[in-house]
Amino acid sequence: MIIHRMSDDEKIQGLARLREKALHDEASALSTARKEGRAEGLAVGRDEREEELVKSMRENGIPEEQIRKIISR
Predict the structure, then answer these.
(1) Has residue 61 got a pLDDT over 90?
(2) Rounded distance between C-alpha atoms, residue 14 and residue 3, angstroms
């Protein structure tokens, strides 16, 4: 970081390192949250699509036993 080279003051350098670490930690936490959110969203979407599929199969007269076999794959 530029401030490290610009200042001979160890206190300012320490503060700069702490700020840099905080920014890195924040970016890492946001990245993790995004990944978890995507995974959760995909799971919810998959469940909703599965419910719609089962509903459609029932409406079209497919027996429950067949539906269970199809869904369990």
Answers:
(1) yes
(2) 10
